[in-house]
Amino acid sequence: MTDSDLQAFGFTVRLQDTDAAGVIFFPHLLHHAHDAYDEFLRHSGIELARLLTEGPHLPIVHCAADYLAPMRLGDRVLVRMSRIALGERSFTLGYRFADAAGKPLARVRTVHVAIDAATGKARPLPQHLRRALTRLPEAEDEAG
Amino acid sequence: MTDSDLQAFGFTVRLQDTDAAGVIFFPHLLHHAHDAYDEFLRHSGIELARLLTEGPHLPIVHCAADYLAPMRLGDRVLVRMSRIALGERSFTLGYRFADAAGKPLARVRTVHVAIDAATGKARPLPQHLRRALTRLPEAEDEAG
Amino acid sequence: MTDSDLQAFGFTVRLQDTDAAGVIFFPHLLHHAHDAYDEFLRHSGIELARLLTEGPHLPIVHCAADYLAPMRLGDRVLVRMSRIALGERSFTLGYRFADAAGKPLARVRTVHVAIDAATGKARPLPQHLRRALTRLPEAEDEAG
Amino acid sequence: MTDSDLQAFGFTVRLQDTDAAGVIFFPHLLHHAHDAYDEFLRHSGIELARLLTEGPHLPIVHCAADYLAPMRLGDRVLVRMSRIALGERSFTLGYRFADAAGKPLARVRTVHVAIDAATGKARPLPQHLRRALTRLPEAEDEAG
Q1: In the 3-class helix/strand/coil scheme, how is chain D assigned residue by residue?
Q2: Best exposed site among A51, C40, C45, C143 by fewest CB in 10 Å?
Q3: What pTM did the predictor assign?
């Protein structure tokens, strides 16, 4: 995986993503944002499973999503990640969802904080995570 | 259901709400916001299933959530709905999640637009929906 | 909650239960079976959250479901639990899903084993769980 | 995709698959079986989305799963599909879940019937679907 691939993640809209209105049920879009984040961490040598046992935990304290066009069963969707903010103990990620032709479908933003799993207190981001995040392209804060 | 109950909806955190970190997986909180919305509509005499067949559709074009405290398996949570904005063709709802003692757990906001199901074009909100929404207490726009 | 209520649990089919075919996505039915199980335990004084920390764990090692009639958005469904088998270290539960008029909609069966959370080894069912299970009505093994 | 790949499908256990017990929540395994089925159809030139609009529908009328070993966050899992039965108006598929070393993790079975979407009546399987199903390796009925 090269740096240019680092922020790209693709998925197919599955039956469990959809609802009786025939489109993605709005919270399910966030699963795919989180999958992209999981893959990004993995390709940076960071495993969520290890963070859960060894810490720190990185809970999402805020998320926002803009739904720009309907996504339907079988649609192929590409997710591009970006770094919106990087603080001492928190970071904000952006996710742009588009179809194969580049048509924007959705935007998502997640704010994560690093906490000690035992005490729940905020703590500094680990260096390897900070280095991984700096490899993401920067973006402005775009999703409402 | 009295007007004072109209915006109250309770749920128990179930195993499918949680993830390996032991708390609600962040998108799942939005299921419960949508359940509260569904119940609110139902008690106002409006059925989502009928809207899906007869229109208009009311897709969510934006959502945002603040996670204030962890919610764990078996926790009892109360949701209080409010009306943040009511336009000609759209409306914004607020949801405050709290425990039995009133401790704030989360805040959610959803923005809905009315569209014609066949054409996807925006259209005015139906009168019975407008009337139902005006019965909700007003709130300021609070979730990021 | 009386003994006659003990095995009854109701739910409304929500948007997140459905898929683009307009009916419950088949795995989601099992969420409601598990919710009924969770409520049954709770009303018997047993909390899943406490079992997760203190043990034993009661993982499901087998499940089966028969889908007899479509369940759609807004449908009200009643679940009745039964005890199909009760062994030294395992038990099998049945769940009958029906509409308000008693029309059968689905049948589910789950097989649980008691294991030590640390070692993963099978262990005897705790006495309070055994007592709770004996209060459920018996049923034959009906779901394929 | 060669015939030998036709029945292979891999996935990574994501946070949304897991629950507070730290393993896959049992219904979520079925999502992955259905994803494998979706991919198998797609590689056979059959799109679920088109079946939903043009028919026939292929609802699952029975499913069963055996959980043989815990699957945890980050685990890589391979699914191999097989054909257990192929009738005039129905078919039964098998799914074997294993880790990279071939260790069995789970078995799933799904029974599908072809119905006319408008009337709900059973109808013969389309020829292109029948041809696709005959390319799957045969298996005995193994999941309880």
Answers
A1: CCCCCCCEEEEECCHHHECCCCEECHHHHHHHHHHHHHHHHHHCCCCHHHHHHHCCECCEEEEEEEECCCCECCCEEEEEEEEEEECCCEEEEEEEEECCCCCEEEEEEEEEECECCCCCCECCCCHHHHHHHHCCCECCCCCC
A2: C45
A3: 0.95
User: What's the pLDDT tens digit per position in B15-40?
Assistant: 999 999 999 999 999 999 999 999 99
Closest-CA distance, C22 to chain D, in angstroms, reads 10
Q: Is B25 on the interface with D (CB under 8 A)?
A: yes
* pLDDT for position D8: 74
Is A76 exposed, middle or buried (CB count within 10 Å of its CB: 0-12, 13-18, 19+)?
exposed
Q: Tell me the average pLDDT across C34-63.
A: 96
* DSSP 8-state class, residue B16: G
Helix, strand or coil for residue B100?
A: coil
What is the DSSP-derived secondary structure letter of residue A6? T
Please report the pLDDT score of residue C2 as a whole number: 45
Provide the mean pLDDT of chain C: 93
Res. D6: pLDDT tops 90: no
Chain B residues 5-24 with a CB less than 8 Å from chain A: 20-21, 23
Nearest beta carbon to residue A15 from set D15, D48, D73: D48
Backbone angles phi, psi at D83, to 5 degrees: -105, 115
Rounded CA gap, D48 and D56, in Å?
Answer: 10
Backbone angles phi, psi at C120, to 5 degrees: 80, 0
User: Which residues of chain D lie closer than 8 angstroms to A34, CB-CB?
Assistant: 14-16
Which pLDDT belongs to residue C1?
Answer: 41
pLDDT bracket for residue D118 (50, 70, 90): confident
What DSSP designation does B1 have?
Answer: -
Cβ-Cβ contacts under 8 Å between A and D: the total is: 36
How far apart CA C132 and CA C45 sit, in angstroms, is 9
Residues of C annotated as part of the active site:
19
Report the pLDDT value the prediction gives residue B8, as an integer from 0 to 100: 74
**Measured between alpha carbons, how far is B4 from B17 in angstroms, rounded to an integer?**
28
